[in-house]
Description:
By secondary structure, this protein is an alpha/beta fold. Helices cover 31% and strands 25% of the residues. The protein has helices spanning 22-25, 33-40, 55-70, 94-101, 118-132, 207-211, 221-242, 260-270, 281-284, 291-299, and strands spanning 5-14, 18-21, 44-47, 79-83, 108-112, 138-145, 163-173, 178-186, 194-196, 217-219, 252-255, 308-315, 319-326. The strands form 4 sheets. Strands 1-7-6-4-5 form a 5-stranded mixed β-sheet, sandwiched between helices. Strands 8-13-12-11 form a 4-stranded mixed β-sheet, with helices on both faces. Strands 2-3 form a two-stranded antiparallel ribbon. Helix 3 (55-70) crosses helix 4 (94-101) and helix 7 packs parallel to helix 8. The longest helix has 22 residues, at 221-242.
Amino acid sequence: MSKIHAVITGVGGYVPDYILNNQELSTMMDTNDEWITTRVGIKERRILKKKNAGTSYMAAKAIKDLFDKTGTKPEDIDLVICGTTTPDHIYPSCASMAAEKAGIKNALAFDLQAACSGFIVALSTATSFIESGHYKKVLVVGADKMSSITDYTDRTTAPLFGDGAGVVLLEPTNENFGVIDSMIYTDGVGMKHLHIKAGGSAIPATQETIENRQQFTYQEGAYVYKHAVVNMAEVSASIMDKNGLTNENVSWLIPHQANLRIIDAVVQRTGVDYEKVTINIEKYGNTSAATIPLCIWEWEKKFKKGDNIILTAFGAGFTWGAVYLKWGY
């Protein structure tokens, strides 16, 4: 019997309407368009302004977009995995709330937290569920409302982040398409360099932690950048070598959109031509777990059946990795 593969059969996405550009940011803090653009390559980012709307709102919008495009019915879905760092509430899960909003009633739904690597970890996890034969239609969501954990008085982190959601539908196939391989790692050394100081079980939120703005993302940029460059570049090259891929037969490289210079390093290490690299960081910024599925959403019409695609990401933890998939339609 031939091996079961998990193949992407549909894509959906959503970004909020409100655009926060560098010019507006420069009125909020000591920064400017040139400073931001030259350092990270970001011109603007989308911000969810809707009152009392969280990550599940965007995830449900992305799911409904997928349903509309593919003709998939909510009752057909039997598993929803959401990669997110910014669930609406500590509990219940963002996945369960998004499923409810999208009319999904017959599925297991849970969140997976791997920061900016959340989508590729969720995709790898969902692949195992498909390969086991237990699930037939799985939604893999990457969604984050990063504006909710961004300190807009901090010029080193505020320009980086935006909000958005993307989703793919995974289904089983006996053909040689879909997720072929993944390499994903974690090194806890990264915790002190990239985290949120308070609001969890170790340091619950208090008036003092709020006054000290400890509910927002803390990042030591230079340290994180160094590790992201090395790890994303090396794991991308490693998964290519392991699967006999070269810059010639890789059709697309889809990197996490954190910093244009990190993407440059991955391109240089892998040798993949720049026209094969998906880049939308200039208009969306870093949407954390949503960056890769949003790229898939935007470039979907350019993909061809059989295309060799490398996904790669790096996030807090540190957690990083790469996925090799063959496009199925």
